[in-house]
Design brief:
about 50% helix; alpha+beta; 8 helices; globular; 6-stranded mixed sheet
Amino acid sequence: MPPETTVCPSLVAWGNAWLAGHVGLDEAADHVETAGGPVVAGDVPLRKYLANLRVGGLRELRLALPAPGDPLGLSGPAPFNAAAVDAGQAVIAVLDDRNLGLVPTPDLRGSSYVGVRLEVYESGPVRHDLPSLAEAERELSDVMRAATEALAGVDGPMPGRPERLARGGELAPGYPARAHRVSTLATRLAAVLRLADERGLTSGQVTVRGAALRELDHAVRRALVAAHHAIFEPVRNA
């Protein structure tokens, strides 16, 4: 799954809410920087960078949550794809005449400054094979049931329960309630996947658990991507 930082999901959620007129730029940037500290794109502070992109024709922000062998949300070119897979997350800024890829890296300056630097790449066209919110929710539900059945027969340490984890996955104003629900569930399941522990299992049990968790990871990432794109889904389907 993506790393602990939620800077890309936060940027997509709050950036899209800003573009749709539900929040102001300052509020959106504040929420993004709550996720990982001050953010710069290249060397430009986040607020100024987003304002410049909008002047340049920014229409929406899209989320990519790739994993090795599963470039979810990516369409090249190779340098951007490689960086995004290494980071486990990226943002695609969709402009009128081109797309830009933003990949987060730690921004460490001196002994006390900790923030995020978004490395800027050229990005390929928007992927049109990503699931709708309804499709992603059905897939997540189906995979959860299958994973529960598969893991029920595997003795040994089990992942923690989602309800015991801190809340997370809330989207920005303007997103439909269904998107909030799907994003929250997928975020909690992502945390469960990070807690999965194979110690004390036989090789056969490891194989069963590994297959179930890989399918769940795939469905979780697809659900998160769909939820973060849902604010513009009615427009795309019109």
